[in-house]
């Protein structure tokens, strides 16, 4: 090893990284924070309207490893399209921090925001755990799942730029948000029953007739009785009926002016889907993915469009109220509202 190489790696350097792509709303800043701490680097990371900005100081070999591991170990939902690196003189950072995001007054806003993500297994476990403070809370989410595109108002992706801005986190949620080792570290929609949005059931005149768990119970009763339920979900409304009730399904078809086109059917789990449908390896992967798309499946006599119930509200209803498979469709002719009302976030 040459003396020049040894000197290069024994000195402190500063590395500035600009990363563009799908790097907001995917746990990228918490990932960068933990990686910097592991490699004993100082500096900062923040969101900008163009992506993620990073400045780190440390030994050259650690900085090179930092850059390499960003590409190799990035969060699973992220996609890096551009990574620009610039070596700079050190300024003497004493610790690594997540800084406030840059101002939105920028002529080009090119940061990519993910679509809403299906509820992850960890959050589902929280919802169904009687000892968990989020037990039966339908708006549970974390860095790995939950609303993204549907709640954002502006870039960069921070809580104050979403419809969650009006919900001030309680001390427990704030502690989760601030703790680097918590999976809700910098999860922008973080909420709980104490500080987050609440479930309500409205009648056709907009009057609240039930709330919280009672709202869920009455909603299940409405579906079982053959009526149509309008459920405010991620980014819009779903019209829901009992798929085993022919009269209810026909009523939904008439209202949507959709006499023959298939309607999506929701199942509580993949095992029940496989009882009715032929599911290929690719189709199973799609149904189990964070995107949770509607998938057209093969059946013995007909084709079936299966939709995993990705909002926790739907999953909670199915598990607690033993919902049958239910047919759903968007408001009107199948087109969802491009933006939800600003009065409350919708999962």
UniProtKB/TrEMBL annotation:
Catalytic activity: an acyl phosphate + H2O = a carboxylate + phosphate + H(+)
Top EC group: hydrolase
Tagged with keyword Hydrolase: yes
Annotated region (Disordered), positions in chain: 308-347
Record has Transferase as a keyword: yes
Domain YrdC-like, residue spans: 213-347
Entry EC number(s): 3.6.1.7
PROSITE patterns: ACYLPHOSPHATASE_1, ACYLPHOSPHATASE_3, YRDC
An example molecular function term from Gene Ontology annotations: double-stranded RNA binding
Active site: 29, 47
InterPro entries (alphabetical): Acylphosphatase-like_dom, Acylphosphatase-like_dom_sf, Acylphosphatase_CS, Carbamoyltrans_HypF-like, DHBP_synth_RibB-like_a/b_dom, Sua5-like_dom, Znf_HypF
Domain Acylphosphatase-like: 14-100
GO biological process: one example: protein maturation
Transmembrane segments: none
Family annotation (PANTHER family): CARBAMOYLTRANSFERASE, CARBAMOYLTRANSFERASE HYPF
Protein name stated in the entry: acylphosphatase
Native species: Planktothrix rubescens CCAP 1459/22
Organism ancestry: Bacteria, Bacillati, Cyanobacteriota, Cyanophyceae, Oscillatoriophycideae
């Amino acid at each position: 090893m040459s003396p020049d190489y040894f000197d290069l790696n024994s000195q402190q350097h500063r590395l500035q990284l600009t990363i563009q792509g799908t790097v907001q709303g995917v746990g990228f800043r918490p990932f960068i924070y933990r990686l910097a701490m592991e490699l004993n680097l100082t500096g900062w990371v923040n969101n900008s309207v163009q992506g993620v900005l990073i400045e780190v100081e440390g030994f050259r070999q650690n900085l090179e490893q930092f850059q390499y591991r960003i590409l190799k170990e990035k969060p699973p939902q992220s996609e890096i399209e551009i990574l620009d690196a610039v070596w700079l003189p050190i300024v003497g950072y004493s610790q690594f921090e997540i800084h406030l995001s840059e101002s939105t007054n920028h002529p080009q806003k090119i940061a990519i925001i993910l679509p809403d993500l299906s509820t992850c297994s960890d959050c589902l476990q929280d919802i169904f755990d009687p000892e968990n403070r989020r037990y039966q809370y339908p708006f549970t989410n974390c860095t790995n799942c939950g609303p993204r595109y549907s709640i954002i108002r502006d870039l960069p992706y921070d809580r104050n730029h979403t419809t969650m801005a009006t919900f001030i986190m309680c001390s427990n949620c704030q502690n989760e948000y601030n703790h680097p080792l918590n999976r809700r570290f910098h999860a922008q929609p973080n909420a709980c029953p104490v500080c987050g949005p609440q479930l309500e059931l409205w009648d056709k005149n907009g009057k609240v007739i039930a709330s919280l768990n009672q709202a869920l119970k009455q909603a299940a009763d409405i579906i079982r009785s053959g009526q149509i339920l309008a459920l405010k979900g991620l980014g819009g409304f779903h019209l829901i009926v009992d798929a085993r009730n022919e009269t209810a399904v026909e009523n939904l078809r008439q209202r949507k002016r959709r006499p023959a086109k298939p309607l999506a059917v929701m199942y509580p789990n993949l095992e029940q889907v496989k009882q009715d449908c032929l599911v290929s390896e690719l189709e199973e992967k799609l149904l189990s993915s964070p995107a949770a798309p509607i998938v057209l499946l093969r059946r013995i006599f007909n084709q079936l469009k299966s939709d995993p119930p990705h909002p926790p509200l739907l999953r909670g209803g199915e598990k607690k109220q033993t919902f049958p498979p239910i047919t759903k469709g968007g408001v009107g002719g199948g087109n969802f509202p491009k933006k939800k009302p600003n009065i409350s976030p919708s999962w």
